[in-house]
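Worked example (supplementary).
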Amino acid sequence: QVQLQESGPGLVKPSQTLSLTCTVSGGSISSGYYYWNWIRQPVGEALEWIGRVHTSGSTDYNPSLKSRVTISVDTSKNQFSLKLSSVTAADTAVYYCAKDKGYGGRALEIWGQGTLVTVSS
Amino acid sequence: DIVMTQSPDSLAVSLGERATINCKSNQSILYSSNNKNYLAWYQQKPGQPPKLLIYWASTRESGVPDRFSGSGSGTDFTLTISNLQAEDVAVYYCQQYYSTLLFTFGPGTRVDIK
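After joint prediction of all chains, the assembly is encoded as:
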């Protein structure tokens, strides 16, 4: 059973770059036609999709974040990563990584536990 | 952008009764070539990540109790929880994955026990 785990700094200063990694265990990130996603959720608020990456390197980003977001994949480490530049307090949220159902559709079937990132000086 | 709305914002239902949550999209999320609605439902309990319950609007994810059911097509969808159990207390979100340029979630509906 595939599991996902987010890691990275829990505190980032304003104007800096937020960097998170999602480690995939229990299966290869390269197997199957899956997209690997990032989603965030400000505390007490709704979910916001940030973007996704395929192991081919193909990406899709939320247009509202596109100018600041980079999602990449490292198949040798079985990981994918999120970079969000020029952060402000509005980027404070729990960040989740998630795997979709591949040929079964793009619903998000497996989620990491999430990691809280606070933007503050 | 495809905007998802949900109603009600919250509801309280007695144990063993039915809970009904509505989700509406501002444009159709039915893909005519395969006749599938690109709509998923998730359950989120406090301090936990969302859990996929339903996809293709009405297909139950493996392991999800059959008291959870999804229906609807086009722009109007419903999640029904029959025989509500205490462990069903959570926030429920709908999500469209029709537009690969931007997946969007509804604002969520909180379900409590009356």
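Two points are worth noting when inspecting this output. The longest strand of chain B covers residues 19-25. Chain B is about 0% helix and 50% strand.
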